[in-house]
Amino acid sequence: MTGPLTFIAPAKINLALHIVGRRSDGYHLIESLAVFAEDGDHLSAEPAEADDITVAGRYAAQVPIGEANLIIRARDLLRERFGAAATQPVALRLEKNLPVASGIGGGSSDAATTMRMLARLWKLEAEDAELARLGLQLGADVPMCLAARPLLARGIGEKIEPLKRFPALFVVLVNPGVPLATAHVFQALSRANNQTMPVISADGDADAVIDWLSATRNDLEEPAMSLAPEIADALQALRDNGAILARMSGSGATCFGIFRSKGEAERAAAAISDAAPAWFVSATRIAPVEGNDGR
Fold first, then answer.
1. Do 199 and 280 belong together in one domain?
2. Which residue of 195, 208, 251, 272 is surrounded by the most CB atoms within 10 Å?
3. Active-site annotation holds for 159
4. Is 12 labeled as catalytic in the residue annotation?
5. Distance (Å, whole) CA 214 – CA 217
6. Catalytic residue among 12, 41, 96, 110
7. Residue 292: predicted pLDDT
């Protein structure tokens, strides 16, 4: 290998998130349509004389270093499972472009990307299903982030059905600068047994997906807004700048707006950034799945 492996850990966007029950152990049961942006955190790994991790980027100061760091936990989990094959020291670098505790899977995506990256670097004989089982130990979102493609998620997030087709979508992500702990949002949820998601067509174009989304919701939006009223400001900014649909992602506080074109999304992002320069704002795209993607 002539240089470090480099990967993007994409932002995960819950276009719809229904809370449909609760297990006896306290975990909530979900139904979600999750997609992944073309942008996110950047990660790299290369062999080193000793293990090392460096963090840079806009949100570097928010990243914990030590046992709480999901990148380190992902590395160590692979070593625990694969033993001698995974002992080579590595230098890991994270460029943290996504805000922490923001409902777009930043930490989970970083962990999942680290697992895929190190599995390649160390040449591990690791099937996708095994990585997903291991990743679940790091968090319910990690198996989704390992798939990193449009999917339906059920259970606590571990039951995944990748979609064979999905249209390109142009979206703007907006976070008003308010971190939200997922556990606190779930604690504020007043009802755990909500209506299930409608069936989604496998052949829908962007208009069909948007129509389908209009019949869905994010059940965590209301409890999150009770903890962070600024979410309403982010949603209104997206609507005021032309979003066809605006909704909160995951447990918040990041919101997304869907736009007709790349140009419309970029103009909206620029206008929102000008009006609220301290906010996280990103125009990005959900890449299409054409039906022949066998990943």
1. yes
2. 251
3. no
4. yes
5. 8
6. 12
7. 55
